[in-house]
Structures are given as structure tokens and as C-alpha cells.
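User: Can you predict the 3D structure for this chain?
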Amino acid sequence: MQRKQYTLEFKQQVLQEVHEVGNAAQVTRRHGLTPKMVYNRMKRSNHHDWQTTSPKAKKVASYLVSSAEFKDLETTP
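Assistant: Here is the predicted structure, written as C-alpha cells:
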């Protein structure tokens, strides 16, 4: 089963809706999400570091070394 990846804007919209409505279960049913996912997101969003960090820094990226770079790293003493 393929995992869905939601945008930061969608996650913030859902959390704001939960705070406005006051009922997380109702909001999760409306958006087709699992309650556990929303509650975990709420827990993470309440963390001070999460609130003060810019959205660009929250994106995770990976860097794969090309074969030429890898060979260059191997030959460098």
C-alpha cells in the first residue's frame, strides 16, 4: 500500500480546523484521515522547536553521491 504524503499547508489547515471545531474525530472523518495521524501531528505541532522552525527547514531531502563523486572520494588520500 502506497503511503500518502500531505503538504505542510494541508496539515496546518487540518490542525487549525481541529482547534476551531474542537472535535478531532469529526475532522479526521471529513478528510478521510486516521485519528492517530492527526493526534500525532497535534502533539508534534505543540512542540516549541516545531513552531519556531521555518517551513523550508522542515523538508527532508536526501543526497545521493554519483559514481564519479564516489570514485573521486575513494582516490583522495
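The two ends are 45 Å apart (CA to CA). Residues 8-21 form the longest helix (14 residues).
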